[in-house]
Amino acid sequence: MGLLTAAHRVTADEAFAILRKTSQALNIKLAAVAALVVQGRDDQATPRPGMPSGAPPSA
Q: Is residue 59 part of a domain?
């Protein structure tokens, strides 16, 4: 969560909420979303405006 708190200037609770919402929107495990963030691929893991719920991350 530290990566999200630094990159998006949010609290730890807000960072966890981002991870949780992204996990639910993409229908993948929260740990997988966190792994994408750690790998430096948070642009693929974080939902963007207009991205439908359950849409796969862009390549």
A: no
For residue 22, count CB atoms less than 10 angstroms from its CB and return exposed for 0-12, middle for 13-18, buried for 19 or more.
Answer: buried
pLDDT band at 39 (very low <50, low <70, confident <90, very high): confident
* Number of domains into which the chain is organized: 1
pLDDT band at 36 (very low <50, low <70, confident <90, very high): confident
Q: Is residue 39 part of a domain?
A: yes
For residue 19, give the amino acid letter.
L
* DSSP at 45: H
Q: What is the pTM of this model?
A: 0.60
Q: Is residue 55 part of a domain?
A: no
Q: Of 3, 6, 13, which Cα lies nearest the Cα of 36?
A: 3
Domain that holds residue 7: 2-45
